[in-house]
Design a protein that fits this description.
Layout (H helix, E strand, L loop, with lengths): L4 H5 L6 H17 L3 H10 L6 H17 L4 H17 L5 H16 L7 H15 L6 H16 L8 H17 L5 H15 L9 H16 L6 H16 L8 H17 L5 H16 L8 H17 L5 H15 L9 H25 L4 H28 L3 H6 L1 H17 L3 H23 L11 H5 L6 E8 L4 E7 L3 E7 L2 H17 L1 H19 L1 H4 L6 E5 L20 H4 L4 E3 L3 H5 L9 E6 L8 H8 L5 E6 L5 H7 L1 H6 L2 E5 L1 E3 L9 E3 L4 E3 L9 H4 L3 E5 L2 E4 L3 E3 H5 L8 E5 L17 H7 L4 E5 L5 H14 L6 H14 L2 H10 L5 H11 L12 H4 L2 E5 L1
Length: about 850
Amino acid sequence: MEENRDRVYSEGEDSQEYAKFILELLQAGQDSNSDIKVIYPILDQRQHLLNAGFSETLQQVAQILIAEHPEAISSIVALIEDLSIHINQFPRGNRANNLEIAITGYQIVLNYREPGSEKFAQTQNNLANAYLYRINGSRAENLEDAIFCYQEALQVRTREAFPQDWATTQSNLAAAYYSRIKGDKAENIEWAIAFFKAALAIRTRNDFPKLWAETQNNLGEAYRHRIREKREENIEQAIAFYNAALEVYTSDDFPERLAETRNNLGEAYRERISGEKADNIERAIAFYNAALEVFTREAFPEYWATTQNNLAIAYCQRIRGEKADNIEMAIATYNFVLQISTREHFPLENLETLNNLGFAYLAKLDHINVEKPEDTNQKAATLQSAYDTFKNAITRASKLRELESGDETKQKHDLKWDRLYQGMVQVCLDRQSNQEALLYAEANKARNLAEVIAQKQETPQLLKPITFTEITQLLTPDTALIEWYITDTEIITFVVTYPDVLTVHRNPQCAELIDLVNDYRADYKQSKTHWQTKLSDYLQRLAEILQITTILPTESTRLILIPHWWLHLFPLHALPLSDGEFLLDRYLEGIQYAPSCQLLQQITIHPNFDQLLALQNPTSDLPYTDLEVASIAPKFAISQILPGPEASKTNLLEKYLEQLENAHCAHFSCHGSFNADDPLKSYLILSGGIVGGDPESRAGTREIESDRYVEWRAGKTADINNCLTLADILLLQFKHCRLVVLSACETALIDTKTRSDYIGLPTGFIHAGAMGTLASLWAVNDLSTALIMVKFYELLKPGVSIGKALHDTQRWFKSAATSDLVSWVQESDSFDADRQEYTEELLGRYNEDEKPYGDVYHWAAFCAIGL
């Protein structure tokens, strides 16, 4: 290798030190047969060079060496692969940098491996392992790359030809599916279980006892987190797998694996459904303590802290013994753990422990309220401790989200951080700090939106925390604001009335709300017809659960609604009241929705309304959209219509982008869909956006791995590349847009998996600069939607708010008989002679005194979001 140094150095002065380092490593590998005892000291001496410069120079060095020594390609790439393995496993330096260097090395080697060869499979497996644990980049994409490489390796590593390698790759593939973010989580775990079980065909206890036990433990983890089948049976299976692993793991042979499995057993028994709960918790505590015999603070500080944290959770849940003693034990243990899980060394673990400690203080407070309600001093002290702990945790959570790599990693932790805000809101209310409670509820709602915006925009304009004074400035004398916040135990309603009066209602009917939501969603998914017949009943149940007649402000004529979590699924403006009216009948100046007060505050007023850009029936399968758009367009001085095939993504974002961003009104009459797994890929279907078949028909291409094709409806697939996605919308810059109308199905839906909302298509348009949006909560009727849109635009006159125009439209439609509709069509200037005749013909199917759109399904689907 020595004779190549001058050639390598000539590439540039800055790369000389890297090149010298790399050549020294390769030479040492050649001389020592890649002995780790030789390689690691060299790496240790120059850890500061293990960075992006190393990766870049490694490619140059490899290219030059191979060009100079074509007869030694096999030896050169073997040395590079061995070096990549050593750097991948090197325990020092920056772990993220080490993995990047390893990935670069494996990719270099793959260029010179013969596809289908044993060496090719070996390198694919090594590359997959690096992607599996990669820190930089998108965690979701890294896992997809790992899965792809493992599958490539398995094309060669068959069970017949290479049984041990086949089993190893099966186990690795299982680990990747277990951690997978894309796709259906339940399905991914099923694949993981299948791959782990496949590996056991080779990894028998007799032939490979250590690997057999490792796979048993992994199966225990997969079953403990399994979503399909009965939870009770899955946990029993997990316990059986863990116990099987303990047949091999002993304190003499595998003490660390023994302790790990004991900790897992503790978790399984703590979550166990079968048997007596008290017995299960005692067994969990016993397993945690047994694990701590190996995981000592001195020898394994990180594992010690994790196990102690689990032990503290078990003490909080303990049934036996004195409740007060158990809680104190938990609090003491959490504080003990914080000595190791510090903010500097283990920021995530530190935050999780603070979260748990805060709830331990709340458990203590509950116990005091029951056993010693007169002890006001202890209650005040405990409440203060809970407040300080949650406040500290929330501050650290905000900083941690700034440091975390990959949007999926941040989303993974959202459920945990959501509990922080739940706890803080509860503590603030218990402290009678109602305004502070509202502000923390607001902050929780803004977290995910701010993060999604930050993912897409290089210099995002993130939402600033709002003050209570700023919230009251959103009100006028006739306006009230209702904001909901749902915790694990309460439905909290904040009612703000002019000028600055805040009233809080705490409602314990969470279980009833969950039952309603489950019934509602099940009916909607299984049978739209059945769901439609029960919609009024569902809204009646919801009104009773929310105690709507009790919480309503009585002096206001206009209402701003800020729902939370599941409440985004429902048309709250259509909630029935006790006097036979609906909520919108009570507030005659209109009802508008908002994602949050923070976003509402930042909306810019755009008064002009005479320039329209409309997309009309891009997929040519919505027969009444032509009537809709043709009736609306004449109301604008300037209108740009993109009908059918012209309504393509390319046309919209290239040829007509300037018109779109300068439009006063953007009207999308098309199909739409919300993607709960990846909100940025929620979409409006434009021309070319629907393709035949299903996503699986494109399996084997890399496009399917990037989710270009997603199932839209049975037998139909959406091509995301030809749709307008939320990611695309966030890049728009509306300059004068007063209104975006999403005249499509389900365009107001959002992700309800987490409480930290609001992320959906309407929010994207508002953040892009639109003043307000109209969007739907379910699959709407094409004809009634078209007529509602025409009426809405007629009523949206200068000085009339979007909420008021929609309010009046909906009230009119729910009361209009067929004769009223026909008279309107005949008298309205929105319909020319042909459209008038066509619409009258359509309405002729109903009896004259019938109210064809009086059902809540027809008139209540759309909501006005924004100003």
